[in-house]
Amino acid sequence: MKLDAEEIQSALKKLPGWVLLNDKLHREVKFKDFAEAFSFMAQAAIISERRNHHPEWLNIYNQVIIDLTSHDCKGISKRDVAWAEEINKVLSKYV
Amino acid sequence: MKLDAEEIQSALKKLPGWVLLNDKLHREVKFKDFAEAFSFMAQAAIISERRNHHPEWLNIYNQVIIDLTSHDCKGISKRDVAWAEEINKVLSKYV
Q1: Per-residue DSSP letter, B15
Q2: Global pTM?
Q3: How far apart are CA B26 and CA B38, in angstroms?
Q4: Are strands B24-30 and B63-68 parallel, antiparallel or unpaired?
């Protein structure tokens, strides 16, 4: 179910590093190098598959730019927030 | 060294699936699902690291959209063409 504006703002308070951009949860991360960036992506890929929820993400060398939305409800849902929370735990090892 | 327009057109003839877009070599690929798309990306990541030449790439579920350019010469170089040739061999297993 699509979160409303207030629920999204409330969720963002618990998601350091994330902002709302173009109606998606958005985070940009810089790693040490490509190998570290892709290591993160491999772990996030497995998490995404387990959750059956996948990001739109762009990788440019050591940068990973993530956009998250729920296509089924055409907005941001609890599934996006839960994905971002788990990914933030992974990212805390790197950045 | 930066390839000129004629050299790029000549290279593209040997690179099925690739086009010139925004002064970059560009290819969009659709896989069966996310797992297959990310399997390709893992193999391409290792090739990129071995070649010390890395793409800009976007993944959205089963889609991978690749842009290739050489930052050192601010254009398309032989290294981009060689990367695309090797990646096309990998892609021939999938698509």
Answers
A1: S
A2: 0.96
A3: 18
A4: antiparallel
> Tens of pLDDT along A54-64?
999 999 999 99
Judge: B34–A41 Cβ closer than 8 Å, yes or no.
no
d(CA A22, CA A91): 23
Please give the angle made by the CA atoms of B23, B59 and A40, to the nearest 5 degrees.
115
DSSP string, B40-83: HHHHHHHHHHHHT---EEEEETTEEEEEE-BTTTTB-BHHHHHH
Euclidean distance between CA atoms A70 and B82, whole angstroms: 37
B32 interfacial to chain A (CB closer than 8 Å)? no
Helix (H) or strand (E) holding A21: strand A19-21
Residue in chain A nearest B69 by alpha carbon: A60
Q: Quick check: A58 contacting B, CB < 8 Å?
A: yes
Separation of alpha carbons B63 and B23, rounded Å: 21
**ipTM value of the model?**
0.96
